[in-house]
Amino acid sequence: MKDMRMELTTFNGLDVFTDQGIYVGRVNDITIDVNERKVSGLAVGNINRDMFGEELGGKGVVIPYRWVTSVGDIVLIKQIPFKKSKKSEEAE
Fold it and tell me: Where are the beta strands (DSSP E) in 1-92?
């Protein structure tokens, strides 16, 4: 990935999608590796429960920044394997 220089606040509130178009959640915060002086992850809330399961409840997840492929009006990440919820399994 090219060296992206942008304000950290730019990430706040952006929706996160996989490169397959699946909604992941919304960026709430940034995690930073202070020793390397770079972003290490995105704290994502309002998560897609079909993707992460019901056991997370209302909690969020931290997406490693190395999974980010693009940042603009939304954040795109690499497709990740996810756990299907009981609801999505019943629908199939």
Answer: 15-18, 23-33, 38-45, 61-64, 68-71, 75-77
Question: Between 51 and 3, whose confidence is greater?
Answer: 51
The residue length of the chain stands at 92
- pLDDT 10s digits, 75-90: 999 987 665 545 444 4
3-state secondary structure 37-51: CEEEEEEEECCCHHH
Quote the pTM value: 0.74
Q: In degrees rounded to 5, what are phi and psi of residue 91?
A: -70, -30
Report all structural domains of the chain as residue ranges with CATH numbers, in order of start: 9-80 (2.30.30.240)
